[in-house]
Structure formats: C-alpha cells, structure tokens
Amino acid sequence: MEKLALLAACLIVLMLLTVCPAQAAQEPLPQPPESEQETSWFGGWFSAEEQALALQVAEPYIELRTGPGRGFPVFHVVERGGEVVIEKRRTDWVKVRTPRDKSGWVRAEDMEKTLADGELVSFNRGSFDSFQQRRWEGGFSGGDLEGANLLSAYIGYAFTENLAIEVTGNKALGDVSDTTLLDIGLVHQPFPDWRISPFFGIGAGLISTDPHSSLVETEDRDDETLHATAGARIYLARRFMLRAEYRQYMVLTDRDDNEELEAWKLGVSVYF
Fold first, then answer.
1. How many Å apart are CA 65 and CA 135, to the nearest integer?
2. How many whole angstroms separate alpha carbon 87 and alpha carbon 16?
3. How many beta carbons lie within 10 A of that of residue 177, not counting itself?
4. What is the CA angle 135-137-139, rounded to 5?
5. Which of 33, 62, 31 minimizes the C-alpha distance to 48?
6. C-beta separation of 212 from 178 below 8 A
7. How far is residue 141's CA from residue 154's CA, in Å, rounded to a whole number?
8. Report field, pTM of the whole predicted structure over 0.70
C-alpha cells in the first residue's frame, strides 16, 4: 500500500510541474502563423504544405472512396490530367476534393503517383516528429502477473503532449486460477520529446478471478482495483514503438486485508 501511495504522489507532483502553467509567464507564448499551424486529424500526420497542394493525376485514373479503407465503395474516378486538392489524412489514406466539389478518400500510395509542379509527390509515412504529436495509440503486450502468464491490449488518447487516458484489458492464465482485469487510468509523460520517454499513471478498474479447483467448491470473485504504473515508450520507426511497463494493483476485497498484485509487461504499440 505504501509503494502505491508513493508512486501516486510522485505522479501528482510531476503533473503539477509540467501541466499547470507557470505563474511567472505573464505574456502569451508566440503562435505560428495560421498558414503554418497543424490542422489535420491525428496531429503530425500531415503538414500544412501538403494540405495546400493542388495535385494533377499522372496515372490513368485514381479512385475516390466514401471512407478511408478498402471496404468502402468507389463512388468517383478522376482521370489522368484531372486535379485534386488535399483536405486531410487518416493513417495511409488521404481525403481529396475535385474542382467539381466531390470529396473522397484515396490511398496515400496512389497519391504518390500524382504530380505537384511537375514532380511526383511523396508523403510522410510516419516519423519521430509525428510520434511526438500523436493523439491515438494502441498495442498488445505479454508479461507476468504474480507468476501467471499475462496478455494485455490497450488503447489511449492524449489530451495534451503530457497527459493521456488509457483503457486496458488484461488476461492472466495461471495454474490455480485465471484472472481478468479491466483498467482505466490517466497516464503522464513528463518528457514527450525523448525517444525513450518514461511515463507514470494512476487508475482504477475491476478484477475477476476464476479458480480452476474442482475438488473443493469455490466461487468466482469480482473486486474493484486501484493501480499505479510506471514504464517507458521507445520509438522504433514509422508508427511503431516498444512499450515496457510495471503496474502495481491494490485489490479492494470485502475481507479484512486488501491484496497487492504486481504485473510486468513488454509489447509493441502503434500510433495513429
């Protein structure tokens, strides 16, 4: 319990130091010109210069779909020599608009076969700059929960460069029982500009324990949890990062003593 409280207190102090504005700063920070500000979805994926491009189709045609994916139907075709203007981008898909005001989605790979000022276009497929400005991320990991094999998956959304909310699902497979945990928490990243970036978090959740024993009648247990976490994200390349994490749980039981659990995880994440 003491370790959990100490880690939570350290996180609160870090959040106050990095998120709260400094009292001494009386003048607002200078802002870039409107033409240079990022306006695309999932910041960092598309620069303002790319968004302003008017492109000429060099291939026989490009297909416009109703959504950013192969599962969406083609509703319009722009033939060679036709022009399109970029509106925004979502992962590997680009939304464009034609002179007749038809808007649709085209694969970034196909857009690289179009021309701007007579030259082929290339798009940023992910970089450390876009990693720093990410909003959504998710991933899978494996690890250990008190000697049991642990599998986890999570998704997170960043409100600011320092603060994010994450939802995590965990499944631990042990010799005596199986355990399912569902967590939600706040995660603080004090140094978002670092390639190896530490993070800290606190949160709450639910735990369900399913015993294997058939010799003695046992009952499934459902309890609430509190947790504190610490770890690091390591940027690899393009949209990928390695994530290592330690998480300590406090299981709030209806018995006299609460339980403490420790989990270690290592996995791969993507941002989008």
1. 25
2. 37
3. 16
4. 175
5. 33
6. yes
7. 9
8. no
Give tens-digit pLDDT for 62-86: 899 999 888 899 999 999 888 888 8
Are residues 87 and 149 both part of a single domain? no
The count of structural domains within the chain is 2
Q: Three-class SS of residue 134? A: coil
Q: Is residue 210 part of a domain?
A: yes
CA distances to 45, 160, 211, 260 from 218, in Å:
52, 46, 7, 21
Q: Measure the CA–CA gap between 236 and 70, rounded to whole angstroms.
A: 27
**97 belongs to a structural domain:** yes
Query: How many Cβ atoms from other residues are within 10 Å of residue 259's Cβ?
Result: 14
Q: What is the dihedral of CA 225, 183, 200, 268, to 10 degrees?
A: 140
Q: What is the DSSP string of 153-220?
A: EEEEEESSSSEEEEEEEEEEE-SSEEEEEEEEEEEE-S-TT-SEEEEEEEEEEEEEEEE---SS----
In a domain, 93, yes or no: yes
Of 173, 168, 137, the closest CA to residue 153 belongs to 168
CATH code assigned at 66? 2.30.30.40
Q: Under a CB-based contact definition with an 8 Å cutoff, are residues 169 and 141 in contact?
A: no
Q: Can you give the residue range of the structural domain that contains 73?
A: 54-125
Strand ranges inside the chain, DSSP E: 54-57, 61-65, 74-79, 83-90, 93-97, 103-107, 114-116, 119-120, 136-145, 148-158, 163-173, 177-188, 196-211, 221-237, 240-252, 259-271
Cα 155 off chain centre by: 6
Question: What's the rounded Cα separation, in Å, for the pair 266 and 243?
Answer: 6
Rounded alpha-carbon distances, angstroms, from residue 152 to 3, 149, 185: 23, 10, 15
Q: How does pLDDT run across 148-184, given as a tens digit for each residue?
A: 999 999 999 999 989 999 999 999 998 888 999 999 9
